[in-house]
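Input.
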Amino acid sequence: MNLPVVFGKTSNGEIVIRDLVRLPHLLIGGLTGFGKSVFLNSLICSLVQKNPPEHIRFVLMDPKGVEFGAYAKLPHLYSPVIFRPEQCMTMLRYVETEVERRLAMFGEKDVRDISDFKNYLVVVVDEFSDYIIDLDDEFVSILSRISAMGGSVGVYLVLSTSRLDAKNVTDELKANIPSRLAFRVCREEDSLTLLDEVGTEDLLMRGDALFKDGDSEAVRLQVPYIRDETVKQIVDSAIAQYPGREFIAGRLL
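Output.
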């Protein structure tokens, strides 16, 4: 696997791992406080530990301003951590331009597989529905375009939300992001919106989730848990490992 992500452990002890390159995007939903942000931190930290900045960069978007502050000096950042809606749209337009640039370059060089380059860009948006409140359809449209084209050129979306209505989780977005991770929701309707099947409303404690990889049947698992102290240790280790390279912006290819 090029970008292995541990999704969790099933009740029979099987560890569920998927390659983000093959997913190639991920949509996460569920009530606040049931594990979405913890899983995002686990995903980011695991990828940081296994890849140098030359191989992977992150765009982190945090509308609430409370989740991604620990990564402010991470050498793997592609941009400063994004908070405000206007910053969000500016960066997403830049990401879309980067997708188009890569598509053109791959066509010119007859490249078929991003894995030959190992230059990945992962856009992680915590509570993306907060941006929709301010940015409306334009935000959803650009996410849909990036998800439709980005996977083939190493640009991946990881989107999280607690608001599982049709305005936020649109059919177009779902069509381009078949992989879903669902934590507990209030209603069967929310489960249907996210997973296209019921069951998420019956999940229990924090970290209890259903993972659906494309057309496969949803698998129930317990996602990894990572402490804030561990996140800080991993970021500090990355800074020490790449001295003088705290947040280097720029193109990957």
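The CA atoms of residues 53 and 176 lie 27 Å apart.
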